[in-house]
Amino acid sequence: MNYNSKQIDILNVSLKLFAEKGFDGTSIRDIAKAADINVAMVSYYFGSKEKLLEAIIIYRVSDFRMILENLQTELISPIEKIKKFVSFYVNMLFQNKDFYQLVHFEMVNQKRACDFSAFSEIKKKNLKLLQNIIEEGQKDGEFKSNCNSLLIPALVIGTFSQIYNNKKFYIEMLNLKDDKAFENYMLNTFKEDITNVVLGMLIK
């Protein structure tokens, strides 16, 4: 779905507030005040807070679909496409940590009447695009025949979340100086290491 600039502003403001105060701790009035609009406009565009949450999820996940579609058509080898995929994924996770924490909480708890079917459909389409890249590599003889594309996003996001959510522990274990050094590690060393793990699953 295409959103206008005001709707995108509302989505971004809402995500920030949901991450800071929690979904239940954020009111439509809070969102309207932060976005410098009236309450009626939030309701006009999205209907309810639950529908607003659904829109945030679809909007953010759709961005990654565009990246995958462009990546699939690039004139580079399947191995290079996978490297770019993992790099994009790690960057997206890092830049949207609040979003993924919010999604994880809502999907696990299922506390409210949100319809996540559209979100699931986008995820399926994204997985299909990833599968197309893997099949290209199999056809070229670069990738194993028994690769499971389902495991790759789960591996990347699961490992990223495990390390990031235990930042203090990993700063100590990795002998990192501070938060800045940790962020540099995640965007460089971690990205390289997890890319090698994914390629190890795929390459013959």
Secondary-structure map:
Elements: H1 5-21, H2 28-35, H3 39-46, H4 49-73, H5 78-95, H6 97-109, H7 117-139, H8 151-164, H9 167-173, H10 179-202
Helix pairs in contact: 1-2, 1-4, 1-6, 2-3, 4-5, 4-7, 5-7, 5-8, 5-10, 8-10
Description:
The protein contains ten helices and no strands. It is mainly α. It has two domains: 1-47, Arc Repressor Mutant, subunit A (Orthogonal Bundle), CATH 1.10.10.60; 61-201, Tetracycline Repressor, domain 2. The longest helix is centred in the first third of the chain and has 25 residues, at 49-73. Pfam families: TetR_C_29, TetR_N. This is Probable transcriptional regulator, TetR family.
In summary, what is this structure?
The protein has 204 residues and is mainly α. It has helices at residues 5-21, 28-35, 39-46, 49-73, 78-95, 97-109, 117-139, 151-164, 167-173, 179-202. The model has no long low-confidence stretch (mean pLDDT 86).
